[in-house]
Amino acid sequence: MVEGGNISKADKTEFTECWKTTWKTPYIMRLALSAGIGGLLFGYDTGVISGALLYIRDDFKQVDRNTFLQEIIVSMAVLGAIFGAAIGGWINDRFGRKKSILLADGLFAVGAVVMALAYDPWMIILGRLFVGLGVGMASMTSPLYISEASPARIRGALVSTNGLLITGGQFLSYLINLAFTKTRWTWRWMLGIAAVPALVQLILMISLPESPRWLYRQNKVEEARSILGKIFPANEVDDEMNALKLSLEAEKADEHAIGDSLTQKVKGALSNVVVRRGLYAGITVQMAQQFSGINTVMYYSPTIVQFAGFASNKTAMALSLITSGLNAFGSIVSMTFVDRYGRRRLMLISMAGIILCLVTLSIMFLEAASHAPEINQFDTDFPTNATCPSFLSLPKPLSWNCMSCLKAGCGFCSNRANEYSPGTCLAFTTDLRDSCRGQNRTWFRDGCPSKFGFLAVVFLGLYILSYSPGMGTVPWIVNSEIYPLRYRGIGGGLAAVSNWISNFVVSVTFLSLTKALGSSGTFFLFAGFCTIGFIFIYLLVPETKGLQIEEVEQMLETGYKPRLLRGESKGESQSALAHVAAN
């Protein structure tokens, strides 16, 4: 997953216990899955735009020719999510988790309907903003509700299902995109169908209770007891009530100690050397996650496939479906390896793989551009005035190929017999596009036909496989473990905001970068960002696997340095870690 909240890591034992517990008490799974639909919507609404954008461009000429407008349509949901996450915490505390989920469902449904009925691009942008607000709220509220309505012994496993539903929602969005490619209202169905699961969740949540923890905090003790009675065996309810009481008393004491207002909390966090060093690590991994370029793949995957020379919308989405499936698969792999090999090592290996794949993709796109089909100057199927104006004004037209044509803002109509043979560079108009297709020729507008295209898609898949098990999930785990308990909320919140802002910056600039630098230059730029991220992760991010909160605090208080800079051998490093644990 590309975005989310803090993750409670679950091991194999916890998943086994989860199965046994939910089999005996199905009500727990009902709570978790009903709230988890928010994760599904989160994934669907962030993934669906990648395919829908191809058809929005076909229907609205101003979108097709305006790169910035395309970026705004895509990134408006991210901007909405930033504000949704910012106000989500206050709404959660003021009105409760259940009402927050219901509000998010309303935003999802309204946004989906507005987009489906859009008669102008501004309506799509408005709908994306509503959806983004819902995404931001769901990213905080769904895992929180699941966590607070679950027995502690299976909490990590149930919260992990929310992460799986996010990647599952992204995969579902690609399937639905592919399913509606042959329908009359393509993108309207793709975007509008998100209203269905939102309404399903709304109906389910109306019949479900509020979080017992929130109710207890509001002095609704008997209501909290009644809900716990449905979750736990009767002989455990009193113990759970007592544990809830002690936990909330400790929480209130912590809140009093760090301040009541957001300003006081932030100031207190930044003045604490342990929290500050934790933030260096937490914000580093969150920004590195986004500047690896992952959400350009999630939001623009079919467009990137078209950059590789696959002009058909349906083909582009079918190939993109593979990348989304690999992302979901990688999330499952992460659960297996993160506790075995550690957070830090998994992220460094992941980043190394990402860098290698991005550099290779850059080379692939560079080769594709240099070996693009040439321009046929003597094509008699089109009148002279249909030829790209920039091509007509060239003193040496033989220097142009398909990529030169596209960079000039024109369209390339392929050779009828062989896509790799010389084709025609035409002015970019809907009539000429339709005329080209009417002659059983392929119209290219984002990328050129290339024998390197398939290799580019292969390395795009390898990039996802490198990203998902490491940088996809581990940054959230690190942020759930790196801060002192009383500062965990504010520390995790600041890191999450950095993630959303980085996400917005990357998504709102991607197409402009490809226009300015080309696909090759853009992927090489992301490889550079990842190299910087790799260095900062190596220098600033400690290993937290198997350490208690107090041990992490002690390590940060003395200041973390990687073993290479400490000049220690592996054995000395392990001895030092054992000393920290013993004290």
TrEMBL record:
Organism lineage: Eukaryota, Viridiplantae, Streptophyta, Embryophyta, Tracheophyta
Lipid bilayer topology: Multi-pass membrane protein
Protein's UniProt name: Inositol transporter 4-like
Keyword Transmembrane helix attached: yes
Subcellular localization: Membrane
Family statement: Belongs to the major facilitator superfamily. Sugar transporter (TC 2.A.1.1) family.
Membrane-traversing stretches: 31-56, 68-90, 102-119, 125-146, 158-180, 186-208, 346-366, 452-478, 490-511, 523-541
GO CC term (a single one): plasma membrane
Superkingdom, natural source: Eukaryota
NCBIfam families: SP
InterPro entries attached to this UniProt entry: MFS_dom (IPR020846), MFS_sugar_transport-like (IPR005828), MFS_trans_sf (IPR036259), Myo-inositol_Transporter (IPR050814), Sugar/inositol_transpt (IPR003663), Sugar_transporter_CS (IPR005829)
Primary localisation category: membrane
UniProt cross-references to Pfam families, sorted A to Z: Sugar_tr
One GO molecular-function entry: myo-inositol:proton symporter activity
Domain Major facilitator superfamily (MFS) profile per the UniProt entry, residue ranges: 31-545
Keywords tagged on the record: Membrane, Symport, Transmembrane, Transmembrane helix, Transport
